Amino acid sequence: MADSDDAIDLRSDTVTRPSDAMREAARDAAVGDDVYREDPTVNELEARAADVLGFEAALYVPTGTMGNQVAARTHTDRGEEVLVERESHIYKWELGGFAQHAGLQARTIDGGDRGIVRPDAVHEGHVAADGHRPGTGLVCVENTHNSKGGTAIAPERIDAAAEAAHEHDVPVHLDGARLCNAAAALDVPVAELTRSVDSAMCCLSKGLGAPVGSVLAGDAAFIDDARRVRKLFGGGMRQAGMVAAPGLVALENRERLADDHRNAERLARGLDRLKGLAAHEPETNIVLVDTDAPAEAFLERCESVGVLGVPFDDNQVRFCTHWDVDREAIETAVRRVSEVV
Ligand SMILES: *Cc1c(COP(=O)(O)O)cnc(C)c1O
């Protein structure tokens, strides 16, 4: 936790330091060469992740980006289209990886205020392969939706999008970087949010607090193929149990996410009362705040009093709660910001 002299870092839930339990787990991890499938800690993490995410198998990957990109490549053939929400991370923030790693063309759809991929948008966006059109090879959904402010999308919504895709025989990948936040907010098991999709990626390194790593889950045949693609992308790691061990600890931190959500609510309420700020009602651990002043200027003032956030738009900033900021730090953050608006 930041004391009063330290900056309160609300830029992202990726800034957390590993807990003592995680450091101990790393130190004591049983390891082997994971490219030979001989790292018992990685094997355990993959089995546990498959279980939590509700799939037959899972693959440990260094980052969420790699998990998403491996999934896209594994599901598709070169030249196909991928149907994505237009503010989604996989489309907007991964350097156009679809084109570079899988030779795909993206077609975007508008998921509205909450970033929901609706079945009619899937039907409308789907193209059948013919003499002129490449055919849709994949539909992607995101939960929680980062750019829309961490919206937690209900299982029925995901089911509806997946059903529409499956009517066209198109698989669905779920970018669940913060899927455990969605499950905590909706009070459902994680597997309920993945029950109708063909693969799901979940970051261990965000709200769950691991220093490194994400998991990609799917059926056994998909994960076998994904393992080869991970190697192709340079993600075949050796004694990866050293970093997978904290990931195992992280995976059991799901209950704790509700604290982050309560802190996000406190932060939103506190900031919303201040002049020139309008906070969106948070659904999980992300707080979007509309600012009368330009976002960059507002953030500079926040930084001068030791509160960090990121710009999201010309007049919008994002603050993210996580386990290195407790209730007291949130109250301090609000007080500090109140001194500069
Ligand atoms: C952070 C994030 C990713 C990528 O994860 P990295 O580990 O940073 O590569 C993917 N999707 C969403 C929605 C994210 O928020």
UniProtKB/TrEMBL annotation:
SUPFAM superfamilies: PLP-dependent transferases. This is Low specificity L-threonine aldolase. One of its GO terms (cellular component) is cytosol. Residues 1-26 are annotated as: Disordered. The modification N6-(pyridoxal phosphate)lysine is found at K206. It comes from Haloglomus irregulare. Residues 9-292 form the Aromatic amino acid beta-eliminating lyase/threonine aldolase domain. Belongs to the threonine aldolase family. Keywords: Lyase, Pyridoxal phosphate. Residues 8-26 have a biased composition (Basic and acidic residues). Pfam families: Beta_elim_lyase. It comes from the Archaea. InterPro entries: ArAA_b-elim_lyase/Thr_aldolase, Low_specificity_L-TA-like, PyrdxlP-dep_Trfase, PyrdxlP-dep_Trfase_major, PyrdxlP-dep_Trfase_small. One of its GO terms (molecular function) is L-allo-threonine aldolase activity. The lineage of its organism: Archaea, Methanobacteriati, Methanobacteriota, Stenosarchaea group, Halobacteria. One of its GO terms (biological process) is glycine biosynthetic process. Its cofactor is pyridoxal 5'-phosphate.
